Amino acid sequence: MNMNDLTQRWSRRAWLRAAAASGSLVTLERLAPGILAQAAEASAQEERILVVLEMAGGNDGLNMVVAHRDEAYRKARPVIGIPADATLTVDDDIGLHPAMRSLADLLEQGRFAMVQGVGYPNPNRSHFESMDIWHSCRHKGGVRDDGWLGRYLEAAQLGDAPDPPALHLGREKQPLALMSRGIRVPSIQSLAQFRLRVADRPELVNAIQDLADNERAEADELLGFIQSSTSDAIATSQRMESIGASYQPSESYPSSQLGQKFETIAKLIASGLTTKVFYLRIDGFDTHANQPDAHAGLLRELSDAVATFVRDANSQGFGDRILVMAFSEFGRRVQENASEGTDHGTAGPVLLAGNQVRAGLIGSHPSLSDLDHGDLRHHTDFRQVYAGVLQQWLSVPAEAVLGAVYDPIKIVQG
Question: Model confidence at 21, in pLDDT bands (50, 70, 90)?
Fold first, then answer.
């Protein structure tokens, strides 16, 4: 994006912030170049977008990011281990699963990173409990009435944004990560399906919108919640119905559900939607049996969808604004089981994609010999990754969102 484009897209807030930081609005002519630069930087920060991809089921990180020269890996996985000559080279010791060709290409372009050995203390091997921990940043016993992304939306004061501050794309229940005490996030299956069936009932729309101005609704908490939620949904529905008509992808997205979700996100961003967070999910990573083919298919689907999105984003002109983060609730055990699969484990990699990422391996590969009862020992807390995303990408203090201080992983360039 050139300087002219940036200056055309200033927000009034970015301009005033930059002017105030310069000390005076009176000496505008003299300070104009500095103000322009600061306003452009502030605007670029405000326009950054996070796409969170949940790999549900417990992804086998050891067969995704493969320590192919480690004898402990060969010994633990004589059947399902990835042959060294099949991996896609990352460095002399590490390779990617061969199904991840598209992300390997992004890596060569400096647009893909893998944070290794990510987990948390006293890991839980329950899908539901572990996912709740990742979503809320709170262990069992604590109050879980909101999630880390919901708290981000509040910290960034995005509740009054004209467009939804975040969107969940999928049929499943809205993830806890997006829950907030004061900001409601829509869940949609597709743009075509995201419309309220009120086109033939304009009187219903008018009645609900009139209710928004009803003083009685303000005094009644439940009624107020209903009218606010419904009127917000109608406004969002109407916005979605008219959006994206002129968008043309630069290339064909994969026909998979994940590929179509990423195309929807690209369409929304290209159409000018100001949404800051998109959340989507890919299922199937609970590979207890017959893992090789199933895992390869999942990794290919993920790799192709993410890489197409990043390439399309660059063609559409918003490549510098996006960061994709993919995580799973836990990894798998080091030792393969008797069913050509793997069982619930602990640590695993978090994937990052986008023009601004610090590309390559981030952190050391977890030891395959120094284990905790057969499981990997994590060396990076997942909240350190979140802290990096919050502070370096979304420009909000991480402590306010995470509830404690975590040393952020450096995830972006510079």
Answer: very low
Q: Where is average pLDDT lowest: 133-147, 254-268, 283-297?
A: 133-147
Contact (CB, 8 A) for 393 and 50 = yes
Terminal CA-to-CA distance of the chain, rounded, Å? Answer: 18
Cβ within 8 Å of residue 410, ≥6 positions away? 358, 362, 388, 392
pTM: 0.82
Residue-by-residue DSSP string for 222-270: HHHHHHHHHHHHHHHHHHHHTTTTT---SSPPPSSHHHHHHHHHHHHHH
* C-alpha to C-alpha distance for 22 and 48, rounded to whole angstroms: 24
Q: Which residues of 5-28 are buried (b: 16+ CB within 10 A; e: fewer)?
A: ebeeebeeebbebbbeebeeeeee
Burial 244-256 (b: 16+ CB within 10 A, else e): beebebeeebbeb
Return the SS3 of 32.
helix
Give the rounded distance of the alpha carbon of 400 from its chain centre: 19
Partners of residue 42 on adjacent β-strands: none
